[in-house]
Amino acid sequence: MLKSTPLEIRAGHKIKLRELSAWLLLNCNKLRSIFLTGSIMAKILTILSIPSPSLREKSIAVDLEKIKSKKLKELSADMAKTMKEKDGVGLAAPQVGKNIRLIVVNTKDGIICMINPKITKKSWAKEWGEEGCLSVPGVYGHVKRCKKVNCIYFNKEGIKTKIQAEGLMAVVIQHETDHLDGILFIDKAKEIKKIKTA
């Protein structure tokens, strides 16, 4: 549960601007976390690792009528918190045992939830880059990915959204959408190396 410094507002009591400013400064990071995860009750989920069967199944599309459901919002919030806690840059629903087409991506502007994401265009230009995965702990390898991708998805409010991504974000979107089709980065990787984990 998220703890914050209480700000008491009593009837007829005028809050001084200085008091309000001080409270906001103390709690700005916590408030930002609420908006990013969409819930103050978000919990950390167990991340599945190979050889879990869920990681190899093709995920089904989310019913558009259920996008605004409390259950889906809680799942996306839990996934966002889990990803941040594990220092990830992306997380797909199959990694937490839910075979639905849902991913969360950590961007420089905050976490975005992508429901039923579909890559509609890929650049001809590709590049090699090192990747790892929370579901394949201690393993890294070089994967050749498109430098740029166009992707359409539905956000948490059910609004169809288009995005053009390049660089790291393009890589993350390709990596996470692969998860939705039961594909892991090790299926495409070269120069795979294992690092001992504690």
What does this structure look like?
By secondary structure, the protein is an alpha+beta fold. It has one domain (43-194): Peptide deformylase (Peptide Deformylase). 25% of the residues lie in helices and 30% in strands. The chain has three helices and eight strands, in the order H-H-E-E-E-E-E-E-E-H-E. The strands form two sheets. It has a five-stranded antiparallel sheet with strand order 1-2-3-6-7, with helices on both faces. The longest helix is centred in the first third of the chain and has 21 residues, at 17-37. The protein is globular, with a radius of gyration of 19 Å. Mean pLDDT is 86; it is low at 1-13 and 33-39.
